[in-house]
Amino acid sequence: MTIRIAMWSGPRNLSTAMMRSFGSRVDTFVSDEPFYGAYLQQTGDPQPMADEVIASMDCDWASVARTMAGPCPAGAPIWYQKHMAHHMVGPIALDDLPGLTHAFLIRDPARVVASYAAKRVAVRPEHLGVERQVEYFEREADRLGHAPPVVDSADILANPPAIMARLCSALGIAWDPAMLSWDPGIRQTDGVWASHWYDAVAASTGFGMARREPLALDNEAQRIADRCRPFYERLAVHRIRA
């Protein structure tokens, strides 16, 4: 029986490093933002490489959902699915992904805005996805009767072994120290957009250091961060601690 892990994240949020970490396990297959093409096709959001992304992916919402809940490629015991919460603007909801173990990766919105703004023409609050994360978190908590796993990228970077081991426990899988390091480079399982977005993670061999330098956001960036902060804080109180 395959354990399907749906990790709901926002952009610029350690999400690809987390995918590398799970991909370092010999028992795990990873999928990279499977709803991205459907999101771009429906919204027309002017993302870099949008045409190439759409051409490379299944862009039918229902078809993607069936695939994510279906048999795992290569029959791996664990299937780690990296999902962007802000992609979920179509007809598919959490209830349409049966049999998945849902978890949530968060990051201080000020640091997300500072990182994401450097890669985009414009950033809106909905691009951070944190409001949708709260919606999914609350629905899953109601279904389970307790909070699903939440991890903060800053906590992971501050103490990778402790946080990742506790995350594995919360997900019902064995801890594997192989998750702390990986070979550099692009993977076959990476989305076609890796050439634009994954320069830092492609050069990495493990989780980096937590950034502690103060941020200097302009007024618009600060407004976006402030708009998203209450949703981030709603999730942060449930985060796994070392």
Describe what you observe in this structure:
With 242 residues, this protein is of the alpha/beta class. A five-stranded parallel sheet has the order 2-3-1-4-5, sandwiched between helices. Helix 5 packs across helix 11 and helix 6 packs parallel to helix 11. The relative contact order is 0.21. The mean pLDDT is 94.
Helix content: 40-55%
Secondary-structure element order, as H and E? EHEHHHEEHHEHHHHH
Q: What coarse outline follows from CA principal-axis ratios?
A: globular
Strand order of the largest sheet: 2-3-1-4-5
Largest sheet: 5 strands, parallel
What Rg, in angstroms, do the CA atoms define? 17 Å
Mean pLDDT across all amino acids: 94
Low-confidence parts: none
- What gap, in angstroms, lies between the N and C termini? 30 Å
Question: Quick summary of this structure?
Answer:
The chain is of the alpha/beta class. The protein has helices at 15-23, 36-43, 50-56, 61-69, 109-117, 130-144, 153-158, 160-171, 194-197, 199-202, 219-236; strands spanning 3-9, 28-32, 78-84, 100-106, 150-152.
